[in-house]
Design goal:
By secondary structure, the protein is of the alpha/beta class. The protein has one domain: Rossmann fold, CATH 3.40.50.720. Helices cover 48% and strands 13% of the residues. Strands 3-2-1-4-5-6-7 form a seven-stranded parallel sheet, sandwiched between helices. Helix 1 packs across helix 8, helix 3 runs parallel beside helix 4 and helix 6 crosses helix 7.
């Protein structure tokens, strides 16, 4: 177990990709802090299940990813209660789909805050401790949209391109400190985030649900298959391993060939 007794913080981890990453890390022996939105009873169920399934400590932070002070507090709280933070996964994200002329400025601000700025605030808080211990793993959940664009997703594409740039910059700054920083860029993964954007895409493109799934979502992926949360989690876990110590500043696609075209 490469993560035995290490500490990991995964944002946006009460469901979907983040929860699967948190569970994969816990299965490998890490103590976990999860974070995100959702029904409090459901969140507590998932938190307790991580502890009971894997015999590790698991805490929950309700920090708001639009609030820099709460993000800083979450990292410090994690270290105070679980110990030195070894692995930071910036996974929190939201989406909104609209033509640029109709795109609500409030939605733009929220997407930039949660999908990009939150990662900056978490990283800047976590890096000093990682430098002091000469070990750390920073993993940012980007997207195929960190490499290519799609219509009607101006804020999301901008945030994910920015996250790729932030990752590269951090990787260069900490290259001699035993810390790696990488992006994982999934294509379409079947998660609540993807499912929720289907109605907006139906409206924006005047399509049925089936047309959106096959002609918009899976049309981008040559494999014609959704990526699974387990596949993304497995890649994240690999990036924490000693075998991945020289992978840094990378943007690793897991998109069924989408960005190969």
């Amino acid at each position: 177990m490469s993560l035995k007794n290490r500490v990991a913080l995964v944002t946006g981890s009460t469901s979907g990709i983040g929860l699967c990453i948190a569970r994969a890390f816990a299965a490998d022996g890490a103590h976990i802090m999860i974070n995100g939105l959702g029904d409090p009873v459901a969140i507590e169920t998932e938190r307790a299940k991580i502890e009971s399934d894997f015999g590790v400590k698991c805490l929950y932070s309700s920090a708001d990813m639009t609030k820099p002070d709460q993000i800083v507090g979450m990292v410090k709280d994690c270290e105070a209660k679980l110990g030195a933070l070894d692995v930071l996964v910036n996974n929190a994200g939201i989406q909104h789909v609209d033509p640029i002329e109709n795109f609500p400025p409030a939605s733009w601000d929220a997407i930039i805050a949660i999908n990009l700025s939150a990662a900056f605030h978490a990283i800047r808080t976590a890096v000093p401790g990682m430098k002091a211990r000469k070990w750390g793993r920073i993993i940012n959940t980007a997207s195929a949209h960190s490499k290519v664009a799609s219509p009607f997703k101006s804020a999301y594409v901008t945030a994910k391109h920015g996250l790729n740039g932030l990752t590269k910059t951090v990787a260069l700054e900490v290259a001699t400190d035993g810390i790696t920083a990488n992006c994982i860029s999934p294509g379409y993964v079947w998660t609540p985030l993807v499912e929720k954007q289907i109605p907006d895409t139906m409206k924006a493109r005047n399509m049925t649900k089936e047309q959106v799934m096959h002609d918009v979502l899976l049309a981008a992926q040559p494999t014609k298959e959704f990526v699974t949360v387990d596949q993304v989690a497995a890649l994240a876990l690999f990036l924490t391993s000693d075998a991945a110590c020289n992978i840094t500043g990378a943007n690793l696609s897991i998109d069924g060939g989408w960005t190969a075209e």
